[in-house]
Amino acid sequence: MIQRPRGTRDILPPESRLWAAVEATARDVFHAFGAEEIRTPVFEATELFVRSVGEATDIVHKEMYTFPDRKGRSLTLRPENTASVARAWIENGLSERSHPLRLYYIGPMFRYERMQRGRYRQFAQIGLEILGAASSLADVEILLVLHELFTRLGFDDLVIHLNNLGDPEDRPRYVAVVRERLEPHRAELCGDCQRRLDENPLRILDCKVPRCQELAAAVPGIDEVAGEPSRTHVAAVERQLEALGIAYRRNPRLVRGLDYYLRTVFEVVSPQLGTGTVLCGGGRYDRLISDLGGPAIPGTGFAIGEDRLIDVLPDRFRHDVLATPRLILVPLGETAEERAMVLARDWVRAGVPVEVEVSGRSLKAALKRADRERASAVAILGDDELAAGNVAVRDLTAGTQEHVAIGAVPEWWRRRG
Ligand code: ATP
Ligand code: MG
Fold first, then answer.
1. Cα gap 245→127, rounded to integer Å
2. Rounded distance, CA 385 to CA 403, Å?
3. Taken in order 248, 253, 255, 257, is the CA torsion positive or negative?
4. What are the backbone dihedrals phi and psi of residue 251, each rounded to the nearest 5 degrees, phi first?
């Protein structure tokens, strides 16, 4: 039998309903804050990610799905979407539009990773970017929208970790500090981190290996080495978060796994998943668009891992979505079957979610199935009902049955709530 590729998933009903509901909620919140959707291709020129995410990151180093197309051009399945948004911004001349531009996306990303809980090779991200605003206000807005979305989904236990990554000018100084501290311990670092020590020492702070984390904990925070402008910027973000009552934790060794971030960076973790499995990451990337050959346009944004989000979705939201009410229409006999689709059409047009029993099951079998699948109600259309112009409606929640005129079913449905 042919199986799906490792690290991919089939999202089946009713679970798929949760995905749709989460995405609908995200769209609502984004639209409410003035964001609009952007849809970029799922594959891009490999060069785009090498230049933006950074050559020495794990993503570019070992996680990309890169392949030559039939003409030998190197393409890559997008491992993340901020680079694509930046590319689209430049390519479509979006600088002509009003600033700032708030753009969101929802879609699949691809990384060749080792499989484990919450880590897939195809996974979905829900992301938001604000392009064209250098102010700390934009960072605060990003965090506010994120917080609103999580609140609307029913979360109340998530923790925002925040840090100041400094400006790119501060980087060499900090890299020197990290090297100086960790070089004596080179042999104790994991293989990846020994390479990182040479290529991109900041990445060591992001390593998940416990011994590396212990050693990294002795390195001073980036903020201590950062220049005044970035410190002032992030301090303003913190003040405004406090004014909004949005709780956060300062994490001086938070660096994120992509090279383009500067100043404000953050991650959202869930106590249910632990700090090793991050729900959402983001931050400011003022040089990304200019590094890709565009104008000097600042940006800030986040990306939520939708798979992980669904994994820890609060019970309340989960229950409300899965308990979506449904009416099953059971036609008994040939004449009733012929009428059934007309009724279904009219009721659906009147706002009732109808599922016609098209299998020709007996009434007993149909009721059993309705019960098993937790339908809210069943409408039975037999010969007597046909003659009288009504249906027998059985409310499976209340356990009651009554006859309702065919045209009055939408009204009856609304009344039962
Ligand atoms: P991690 O540290 O877990 O590898 P990351 O720093 O590589 O995450 P980002 O590039 O910041 O992740 O992506 C943002 C979010 O996308 C992550 O916080 C996570 O929720 C989700 N994500 C990233 N990689 C995966 C994956 N392989 N499977 C599922 N979700 C993922
Ligand atoms: Mg990763």
1. 23
2. 8
3. negative
4. -125, 95
Residues with CB under 6 A from ligand 1: 80, 111, 113, 118-120, 123, 125, 257, 278-281, 303, 305, 307-308
Residue 261: pLDDT over 80: yes
Comparing CA positions, the residue from 129, 123, 96 lying closest to residue 111 is: 123
Q: What is the largest CA-CA distance in the chain?
A: 91
Phi, psi of 300, rounded to the nearest 5 degrees: -155, 145
Return the amino acid letter for 248.
Y
Helices (H) and strands (E) in the chain, counts: 17, 16
Q: Do the beta carbons of residue 362 and residue 371 sit within 8 Å?
A: no
pLDDT at res. 23: 98
Question: Any residues with CB less than 8 A from the CB of 21 and at least 6 apart, and which?
Answer: 317, 321
Secondary structure (3-state) at 32: helix
| Residue range 239-244: mean pLDDT, rounded | 98
Mean model confidence pLDDT for the chain: 95
Q: Which tokens is 200 given? A: 């991109």
Pick from 260, 302, 308 the residue to mutate for probing ligand 1's pocket: most ligand atoms within 8 Å of its CB: 308
The model's pTM: 0.93
Q: Which residues contact 274 (CB under 8 A, 6 or more apart)?
A: none
Average pLDDT over residues 309-319: 96
What is the pLDDT confidence band of residue 276, given thresholds at 50, 70 and 90? confident
Q: Binning pLDDT at 50, 70 and 90, where does residue 169 land?
A: very high
DSSP E strands, 184-296: 248-250, 262-269, 278-284
CA distance 45 to 328: 50
Residue nearest to atom 15 of ligand 1 (CA): 305
Given a cut of 90, is residue 212 above it in pLDDT?
Answer: yes
pLDDT in the model for residue 282: 98
